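Final paragraph of the annual report: two paired records, presented back to back.
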Amino acid sequence: MRKIFILFLAFAFQKNYSQELFVVTDPASNVPANTLSVRLSQSLFKEEFVSGYNYHLMPEVTYGLNKNLMFRASAFVSNRTNQLVTEGGSFYTKYRFYSTDDINSHFRLAAFGRYSFNNADIHQEQIEIMGHNTGFETGFVATKLIKKVAISSSVSFEKAFDNQPNYPFPDDLGDNATNYTLSFGKLMYPKKYTSFKQTNINLMVEFVGQTINEDGKSYLDIVPAIQFIINSQARIDLAYRHELVSSMLRTAPNGFYFNLEYNFFNAFK
């Protein structure tokens, strides 16, 4: 009976949520209850003002406490000092407070919050607590699934603090910002489900932006991506992030993402 339940859960997860698993943003849907998700996120971005590339490695562990509440812990590793150094970490939670379901569609609303700590130097006007700044972010996200197409959008407030112990936040930079995202994803394959073991192929495009609240400086990026869901448990993301417009200093705005993820359903008995 337990095996049948796990297979049913995996098939439902693949059919209903696979095209919602965006690369750089989180949808309003959560990982399934009692599921442990392990992700290895990697990015390689080209430096704008010096030669070379900025590499970030972010291992993450996510746990779905129930259908409405999940938690995530992340670590930040980068090569900014010409060697891989652990610079900090992050704690994230998301609560889904509204949900409507239909036969071929659903709608979700969720609130989320994140706190990060970082000991690296502060080197740009962009505020990014995922790997660069100490600080917090809180906001809301809405996601609509219609058959094989998912649309998700979020808005959040982000605040940066000093990067302890050696890097106070510069007085001449704005330390808080408004973030906004808009993401589209479509299930391209399979055309019809016959087994939970079928590989899913999703195409998506995401728009990610930020405005510094104190001076109005902003940027907007586009992130096209391809995603593979294997055996309803493993996930592979490949994406490219490109700056469309920007009025702020960003040291490495363009680059690639490569993520690997594996889900353990019914993780704790």
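The closing record of the year follows.
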Amino acid sequence: MDESIQPEIAEKIKQLEKKFKNSGQDLGSYLDGLLHDRYLTYWDYIHLDTLLSLQIPRTHFPDEEIFIMYHQITELYFKLIIHELKQIIDDKLQTAEFFTKKLNRINRYFRVLIDSFDVMIKGMDKDQFLKYRMSLLPASGFQSVQFRMIEIYATPLANLVNAKEKAQFSEDDPLEDVYEHLYWKSGATDIKTGEKTLTLKQFEYRYTPRMMRIAHQVKQSTIYHRYLELPEKEQNNVHLINALRTFDTNVNINWLLMHMGAAYRYLNRDQGEVLATGGTNWKKFLPPSFQRIMFFPNLWSTEEKENWGQQWVTHQFNTTK
């Protein structure tokens, strides 16, 4: 070994030789690759040019680009949330500390999303929105599969059944049967005829196989199941319970109310309402007090369940009008 090489560098080379030898690889070949490789740049690492090329408006209205970017940012946050949910599901340590750490990250992401919704509520010109939205039909934020994945990872499908039919289903029922009665389907179904909107038909055709695959994968290992599998002492951890309740509140109350604020801002009129793109029944679908979806029902009192979402409604609409 060349004496001019610093001891710590020589030691690292030895470690690399051992690593590649154990895997049947030649260190010299990798060093040749390192020698010829270009320096990594920030823009290459995050694929900045590609990222900035993904905003493609369908109209000439400037604010449509805001609309596109906001939804793309939201989907990236959903991906971060799913990344943390999977780690909780895969964890074998069964400690409240790990569980809480991951939930705090998730709640931080949702807090950013909820706070950022002012971009949608106050950050776009209403007249522009009502015009360019007509070029988006039948696309709708309703078609966010990542949000549905968050729900599936979080709780058994039986907890996601619409309010009118929830008592008829349990975890013992076939997932395929339960899936047909999930609450969000009613949000894109014609109330008078019972016919599914094109928005829903497209969404189901594209994503039902993926959602059902995930539902089967986590049938007994959702976040709710993982919590119930914890030792009793860990289950009773106050910080963990608060984190779970915050997650439930963020997703099933606060996030929905922000959407309602945006819907009232852009779609509500004194003389009738403007239909949402995709034909979703937003006034029947979005209010949390209507569906009463809860990921962790055993963490809420009877009174809290009966008043689900109502204590947040007055404050929300006073701040968005």
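The radius of gyration is 24 Å. This concludes the annual technical report; the extension proposal builds directly on these records.
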